[in-house]
UniProtKB/TrEMBL annotation:
It comes from the Eukaryota. Signal peptide: none annotated. It is found in: Membrane. GO terms for molecular function: glycosyltransferase activity. The keyword DNA-binding does not apply. InterPro entries: Glyco_transf_92. The gene is LOC113491661. The chain crosses the membrane at residues 7-25. This is Glycosyltransferase family 92 protein.
Amino acid sequence: MRSTLTLRLIFLASCTSFIILWLSLPPAPRKYLQSHGLRQPESRLLPYKYWYHRNLYPENYRDDTCVEFPDFEDILYASASWQLLQVENGNVYVYGAYWDDRFEPLVRVLVYSDVHPLPKLYCQLWYPNDNEPQLEVAIPLYAWRTQWGGPLPGVNEPYILSCSGRRHSPEPQVAPVAAAVVTTPCGAVTNVVRVQNAPSESLLGSVQPEAGSRRNNSVAVCVKWIHFREDISSKLIEWLQLLKQMDAEKVFLYTIKLHPKTVKVLDHYEASGFVVATDLSHAPQMSGRQLSPTLMEFLDMRRELVTLNDCLYRNLGKYEWIAIIDVDEMIVPYTTNSWPDLIQSELASAASEGALPLDALVFANFYITADSQRDLVGPARLPMMAFTWRNKEHSPWGWRVKSFMNTSSMIAAHNHIPISCDRDCVMRNVKTEVGKLLHFRRTCSEEGAECEKEREIIRDDTFGRWRERMVKEIEEIERIVGV
């Protein structure tokens, strides 16, 4: 009897161990079509025109080659947003590819990798009317600073791969239209993405031209992925209307999970052309590693960099500056009325001081918390319009700052400042009497000792110059959208 009980316990323990091991494994790669329900999913990421062109003109793609251009069903997906390259001891997750000829002809590819050190990788670059890809060594740039920690094995780390797009003589000098990341020159290819902004896409058929040319000091807003199950519809309308007041050109957001009313707000602004929202699904976060919530939050800051740099590279040549801010933040001019005017003023001041061309204009962070308000001057649901009491002192320079970043020189963007430029990045701290980053939070306690130390509050009604008109605009949009 005792031996039977022992055998049963051993069997149960073995089953339990197997289940725990199975649950800890990363999800298996899947082959599937990207959902038509996703915002901005397919034409932006997959080379549909190239597939169509190859099928329409097969006679142009008959050259013998050791590798075949991957078909739709050859692609492996880690999730709907991420294609997969399996390498020894881990994976490389491919997000997007971009043409970048600012300094030399290059294709930049944004990836995660959970392998460290990163294995030697190549770009297969595919061109119109050519069945043989050009193979180039991929030069990786870690899109995070090593002094901040990382890269770590088993963790999705962000990289920007740079591959020469200069054609080998005597081939014509045109840009590639599709790119794949591989480990060997020949063999099966499990990923391929469209090279965004490639001028040679015109050789594949009609291409919708960009409307107009970019304005001087034009600013696009990039937002890290947003994931709000609660209703933030009114706050989002308030924030977007303020961005219009600041004369931002367009807002690019990445969405994971949102309340239905918040989705209705985004739909409204997308229809007007002011917002571009891209649905995002995560690649498997870890290769079976169990990490604390605090460390996961820290690692998320690194993972956010892929989408933020996607926003940079998809907009090269379209906007002179990008601002990476969250939906509870606003860069506010105090001596001018718009972002372009503020930028122009700072550029003129820098030139008069003999400063080098600027890669970033940096703004100090001032907290405005709900629990610090002595009164409200607007509707409570609209904190930017209602709150007028802020911390007197700003966070230390270099801490919580946000920036306008120059798209002509930046190679890697971070949430706060550029990570890498074509030379050492040149940044200018904007005087706080000229401009501030206002950061709206519920309580100081959420931010820790840093916020508590700056707890003395003063009245600041800089939004008062727009409040009456803006509240009316917000209420009208709430009525139209039905939130």
